[in-house]
Amino acid sequence: MEHCRKAHHSESFKKDLIHRLNRINGQINGVKTMIEQDAYCDNVLNLITGIRSALAAVQRKLLEGHIASCVVEQIQEGNEAVIDELLETIRRMVR
Question: What is the CATH number of the domain that holds 37?
């Protein structure tokens, strides 16, 4: 993974992702509290399911942004190897 490349997303795009991640972080802390307080397992499992769904939504939104900005930009610059990189990322995501 190359760490010198940077994304070029708008501030509103980043704020939306950060907002979503902050909510997920709160939910994760909620799971921890529920376990500490011996909450009913089914309730904890349902919250974890919600967290996974929310995290998948963040992943989809970031993938869409990546394709629309980073990938398009690199293709326009002549770097078609980014397509193979994207395909490998998608393969890892769908495992």
Answer: 1.20.58.1000
CA distance 18 to 16: 5
Question: Cβ neighbours of residue 12 under 8 Å, at least 6 residues apart?
Answer: none
Q: Is residue 2 part of a domain?
A: no
Question: What is the C-alpha to C-alpha distance for residues 62 and 13, in angstroms, rounded to an integer?
Answer: 9
Whether residue 3 lies inside any domain: the answer is no
Separation CA 29–CA 24 (nearest Å): 9
pLDDT for 40-78, tens place per residue? 999 999 999 999 999 999 999 999 999 999 999 999 999
Task: Give the C-alpha separation, 78 to 2, whole Å.
Answer: 17
